[in-house]
Specification:
about 140 residues; mainly beta; Jelly Rolls; six-stranded antiparallel sheet; four-stranded antiparallel sheet; 1 helix; about 5% helix; binds (2~{S})-4-acetamido-2-azanyl-butanoic acid
C-alpha cells in the first residue's frame, strides 16, 4: 500500500516546477512506484499558455478547479476546460494549454510512467522512458 499526502510531496523532489514557470507538478506516483502509470496533481498558473506535445506518452487529464482551454495545433479546435472535464491525449495530440484568470488544478495520469524529474523539452514533450534518469524514490 502506498499512501502519500500533498504535504509530503510539496518541497520534496517530487514537486517539479516548469522551467518557464507556467506550471508545477506534484508527482504522487512515478515509475519507481511500479504502478505502470504515473499520477500527478498539476497546477497550471493563471494567464499562461503552454505548448505541449507528449510524443512518447499518453496522458489523461481531469480538471478539478479553474477554467481554461486546450487548442489542438493540427486543426485549431478549441476545447473548454472546467471542473468535471476530462481530456485524453490518446493520439499524442500537440496542443496549447491555456489557463484563464484562475489557476487550473488538474489530475494527470501518464503512461508510461514519468521517472519523476521530467520538465518539458523545447517541443513540449518528455523524453522516452528508456532515456529517463531515475529520480528520487
Ligand atoms: C496537463 C499537463 O500536461 N500539464 C503539464 C505538466 C504535466 N501534467 C506533468 O508533468 O504533471
Amino acid at each position: 500500500m502506498i499512501v502519500r499526502t500533498l504535504g509530503e510531496i510539496e518541497g520534496s523532489s517530487r514537486e517539479v516546477f516548469a522551467e518557464n514557470s507556467n506550471w508545477v507538478s506534484k508527482r504522487f506516483l512515478i515509475a519507481g512506484d511500479n504502478m505502470g502509470f504515473s499520477f500527478n496533481e498539476t497546477i497550471i498558473y493563471a494567464n499562461t499558455e503552454t505548448l505541449i506535445w507528449y510524443k512518447n506518452h499518453v496522458e489523461a487529464v481531469y480538471c478539478v478547479e479553474g477554467e481554461g482551454e486546450i487548442e489542438t495545433t493540427e486543426d485549431g479546435v478549441v476545447y473548454p476546460i472546467k471542473p468535471g472535464t476530462m481530456y485524453a491525449l490518446d493520439k499524442h495530440d500537440r496542443h496549447f494549454l491555456r489557463a484563464y484568470e484562475k489557476d487550473l488544478r488538474l489530475l494527470c495520469v501518464f503512461n508510461p510512467a514519468l521517472a519523476g524529474d521530467e520538465v518539458h523539452d523545447e517541443d513540449g514533450s518528455y523524453v522516452k522512458p528508456d532515456q529517463q534518469s531515475v529520480a528520487e524514490k
